[in-house]
Task: structure prediction
Amino acid sequence: MATAYCDFWLVCAAILPGRKQSAANRLLRQLDAPLAVNQLHVLQLEMILARAEPAHPKDVARARAQFKAYLEELVFEVQPSRWEAAFALAVELSRGHAVGGASPTHLLHPCLAAVAGFTHYASFEPEARRFARAAGLRLLPSAA
Result:
């Protein structure tokens, strides 16, 4: 059975206003719910919303409400992660691939997906997609 892991930026694109919002929501509707997220998703989301709140309080309030609704409706479900195994895989992959300007989370999210047994990685982010492919995951959308 194919299971998909959504990267953080896809989750953000689905709940934050912007040019990728409709594409993100279209992709999410194609996947079987509930879609697993983990505490890293939640932490990153809280941090990005906290930084944006002073300048965009209404957008942030809507995004928080949307994420809460997605959790309540089981579009997303916070699930436990195998952190140590994911970090070990991330270290291994970082030694074998040029990491360039990628952030650690571009590498860590695909590794969390791989050690959890997901078959697919849903992302629009080129760096995350590159590491997901290196971790043996199939990419969604197939062309991004």
Summary: The beta strands are 4-6, 35-37, 76-78, 120-122, 138-140. The chain is about 60% helix and 10% strand. Helices lie at 8-15, 21-30, 39-52, 57-72, 83-96, 104-115, 126-134. Residues 4-140 form a domain with the Rossmann fold fold (CATH 3.40.50.1010).
